[in-house]
Amino acid sequence: MITHLRRSFPATVTAETLRKLGYAPKNESYVLNVLRHLEMIDDQGQRTADAQTIFSQHDDTAFAKQFAGLVKKAYSSLFELHGEASWTLDQEALITFFRSSDQTTDIVGKRQASTFQLLAGFAGHKDVPEAKGRKKDATKQLVRPAKRSAAPPNPGATHAHAKDADDAPKDPAVGGSAVGLTVRIEINLPADGDQDTYDRIFKSIRDNLLNG
Fold first, then answer.
1. Residue 35 and residue 126: Cα distance in Å, rounded?
2. Other C-beta atoms within 10 Å of 114: how many?
3. pLDDT tens across 60-103, in order?
4. How does residue 128 score in pLDDT terms, banded at 50, 70 and 90?
5. Local structure of residue 105 (DSSP, 8 states)
6. Which residue, among 129, 112, 105, has the nearest Cα to 78 in the 3D structure?
7. Which of 50, 113, 182, 190 is in the most buried spot, having the most CB atoms within 10 Å?
């Protein structure tokens, strides 16, 4: 969101603004609280004069220096305690500070610490992770299997497999390997058939399919 605001900072930033931009889905209030905490927007979501000046800076170094001022002001109690070393505190130290200051839960303390470290990156004191970009609706694509020629249904019984064709054509696209063909035949055995009936069925399969 900060990266986007450097390119274009709307006069008013609300939850609806974030939804339209596709940022922070279902976490709009959290992002807005951070922007308010930094005094980039007021309680009505209006862009502040300081934010307008800072986010108009095109040069990264100039922006980082002025943005650092916003961060230091917002986290004044942290800087009063740790001074300039606050920028490089590890996450555990930051979690300890935020939890003891705000009496927050572990997960909230971790989020506060991660947020500060991210802001420290934009202030030029840490590496800034690559922007995630906008949330887009994923279009599901169905992958259909390749069609295979199938033998017509046969009344009768169990499953039998024909042998792979020895004379299958070579496919140069796959390094000249033979393309195997497997045909599955489903036969429904008559429930009232006798042994002679079953023998004739399997003999026919052997003679016409397996040995064909």
1. 19
2. 13
3. 999 999 999 999 999 999 999 999 999 999 999 999 999 999 88
4. confident
5. -
6. 112
7. 113
Start-to-end CA distance of the chain, whole Å, equals 69
Kind and range of the H or E run holding 201: helix 195-205
Residue 55: CB atoms within 10 Å: 18
> Which strand (E) or helix (H) includes residue 186?
strand 184-186
Residue with tokens 């279009």: 139
Burial 4-14 (b: 16+ CB within 10 A, else e): bbbeebeeebe
105: left (phi over 0), alpha (psi -120 to 50) or beta: beta
List, for residues 1-56, the tens digit of each pLDDT value: 999 999 999 999 999 999 999 988 888 999 999 999 999 999 999 999 999 999 99
Q: How far is CA 11 from CA 5, 40, 48, 71, 93, in A?
A: 11, 11, 9, 21, 36
159 touches 186 (CB < 8 A): yes
Which helix (H) or strand (E) segment is 30 a member of? Answer: helix 28-37
